[in-house]
Write a structure and sequence with these properties.
Tachylectin-2, Chain A, Jelly Rolls, five-stranded mixed β-sheet, binds beta-D-fructofuranose
């Protein structure tokens, strides 16, 4: 939603109790609230931040502007979880309350060090002429959620980048802390900078080099770069804005992509043997995915179900955006898979054989198998009159199509109303998680993923098999 700059950057303390009450009441009116996904209490949620393991629990913050569905003065809102399925907001917030983050506590990462959580983030600072100074700054969070910001800036804007320099990700590689940061060069190309913590002191970062990941620079900015390791192979996850479509076929305003690499040469800032760039998600919205390697080694990721510069039907209710389910990465036959953590099964409260359903509460999981050599079509969010979210799984021609054109309130249609990807021509499975206005589809246990919003209108809650003979289960889910 377009709101004037003075509204979006109004100091938090200037919002009256009455204004906040009205925003809360408006949010409560929405018919589209998710039940088992993280949503902001109010305002806009965007990137996952600080995804980490701290004090015996998983920590996940999100970017938030709490006063409406717009990108304003951002803070980090803290949630925690023991099972990566149930998340609880704790009340701890990293606020933009310091000269080094005066115009927003932008995205970043976290790592537990000696009993405290180190937060590494971008302080968005603007001067009176609205000229931006992107500062990479730090803070400690203790087990009670108390935040203590560092006095000194950790990394200043280098001379070879524009104002677009942000989203530090700290990671531990062989016992040494490194960080990668998204950047734009002076000739407006996206790239990634690599730093190393001298003597593992997170207050002392030394530049190693511009990360060579076999990128072409056809994008104009790389946001939210992340390096995680799966079976010792580095996986680079990133959001390249403006990527040339000759490099990668994508339809969303900006893609969220990855490369599988063979090894990491930390001395020369090089990812060796990087694959072609690939879409991380084929749905209508998944962006700014953040990942980290948990202490048990698992590579866990979570995505913003939303996109920059897109208006959503929830905007009228003063909120926007959700977090995806937490997904675990694995490599199978050299292919990256993403699949919700096993504990997601604890949400299943009923189980029945899959068939047409006139009515559901739009809170369910389907676990389906589609036979080889057949084109199956399903309508989710179906109203019984042919409208709904149409999912085509065509194992004869090797294609999946998700068509949103007849599903609920239409928005962002400039970017098309269908999404598709190719699959192998063979028996195919799909696990489909529906949560009121969110759908996450995992093909072949995460070989391909479609993450999307759907904003159903009245009575759009059925499931209809249009063609084909998928078999499987319907599970009602409860948080
Ligand atoms: C990505 C992003 C980040 C930035 C944050 C600000 O969605 O633009 O690059 O740090 O959002 O909210």
């Amino acid at each position: 939603m377009n709101l004037p700059t003075e509204v979006r950057y109004r100091p938090y303390a200037d919002w009256s109790e009455d204004e906040i009450k009205q925003i809360n009441e408006n949010v409560a009116r929405s018919p589209w609230h998710a039940t088992y996904h993280i949503e902001p209490k109010t305002g806009l949620l965007n990137d996952p931040n600080g995804f980490s393991f701290f004090n015996g629990k998983f920590t996940l913050f999100f970017q938030n502007w709490p006063f409406g569905a717009a990108h304003g003065l951002k803070s980090w809102v803290h949630t925690e979880s023991t099972d990566l399925v149930h998340f609880k907001e704790t009340g701890a917030i990293l606020l933009p309350d310091n000269p080094h983050d005066s115009h927003g506590a932008y995205s970043g990462s976290a790592f537990e060090i000696d009993g405290r959580l180190f937060l590494f983030y971008t302080g968005n600072v603007r001067d009176e002429n609205w000229v931006r100074d992107p500062l990479q700054v730090g803070a400690w969070m203790d087990a009670d959620g108390k935040i203590e910001k560092f006095d000194d800036v950790l990394i200043q804007q280098p001379s070879d980048v524009t104002e677009h320099f942000r989203d530090p990700q700290i990671f531990d590689y062989k016992g040494q802390f490194y960080a990668i940061i998204g950047a734009q060069s002076l000739d407006k190309k996206g790239f990634i900078k690599l730093y190393k913590a001298e003597n593992n002191d997170v207050k002392n970062w030394k530049f190693i080099g511009n990360l060579d990941f076999g990128g072409t620079g056809s994008e104009y900015m790389i946001e939210c770069p992340n390096l995680v390791f799966v079976d010792d192979k580095p996986i680079l996850l990133y959001s390249p804005q403006g990527l040339d479509k000759s490099e990668l076929d994508y339809q969303n305003i900006y893609p969220n992509t990855y490369k599988i690499c063979q090894s990491f040469d930390s001395t020369h800032a090089k990812l060796i043997g990087a694959s072609q760039i690939q879409n991380l998600d084929y749905g209508f919205e998944a962006y700014a995915t953040q990942g980290f390697n948990a202490p048990d080694g698992r590579a866990l990721i979570v995505s913003w179900i939303g996109l920059p510069d897109v208006d959503y039907p929830t905007d009228q209710y003063d909120y926007q955006g959700a977090m995806s389910l937490v997904k675990e990465l694995s490599l199978k036959n050299g292919k990256l898979h993403q699949y919700p953590v096993d504990a997601i099964k604890t949400l299943r409260i009923t189980s029945e054989t899959f068939s047409n359903k006139v009515k559901t509460n739009n809170t369910y999981e389907l676990e389906l198998t589609f036979p080889a050599g057949e084109k199956s079509e399903l309508l989710l969010f179906s109203d019984g009159e042919g409208n709904g979210l149409r999912l085509t799984i065509d194992t004869e021609n090797g294609q999946i199509i998700l068509d949103r054109s007849q599903a609920g309130i239409q928005y962002a249609t400039d970017f098309g109303t269908t999404r598709q990807c190719d699959i192998d021509k063979k028996e195919t499975t799909a696990n489909i998680f529906v949560d009121k206005s969110i759908v996450e589809i995992f093909i072949n246990k995460g070989e391909k993923v479609f993450t999307s919003r759907v904003f159903p209108e009245n009575e759009q809650n059925g499931i209809q098999i249009i063609s084909g003979q998928p078999t499987g289960k319907y599970f009602e889910l409860k948080y």
